[in-house]
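re the bet — no i am not wrong, look at it urself. input seq straight from the record:
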Amino acid sequence: MPVSTERERKLNMKKSGGWPWRLLLLSFAAGAASIIGTALAMTTTDQAGFCGRCHAMSEAALTHQQSVHAKLACNECHAPHNIAAKIPFKTKEGTRDIFATVTKTIPDLIHPGDETREVVQVNCRRCHEAGIQSVNMQAKTHCTDCHRHVPHTPKLPIAKRSAADV
């Protein structure tokens, strides 16, 4: 007799629409948690405090704090602005950084790769477009070819730096 009672309860649940609503609610909650979690992770991992603490970027984070760009998050310059491009870029670069940290293969002086240089170039132009109208942009390939120390000017005396400024 208990079997038929359980069967009747399930049948009534289906008739009342209880299962679809629960499934929909659970899906909505999981989606919202995923979106909020991703947004929090993206915001946290964009900050200089995170970057300077998690790998060999402490000097870059320190000089960034003393620059005119101090109010910007690291990835305002170092990651694509478009979220669809930013997520895979940060995933790839973050994986590379984690691998270098875990295997202790972080170079003494970190130079950006070609893809990062292009991202920084796009971001320089995005923010400074109005100010570069009279600049001969064909003179060099990247803004950082002339403005290498923006915003990471080596403010520390060379004896206190962990890597020479080259």
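see?? The longest helix spans residues 18-46. told u. also Residues 48-166 form a domain with the Multiheme cytochrome fold fold (CATH 1.10.3820.10). so pay up
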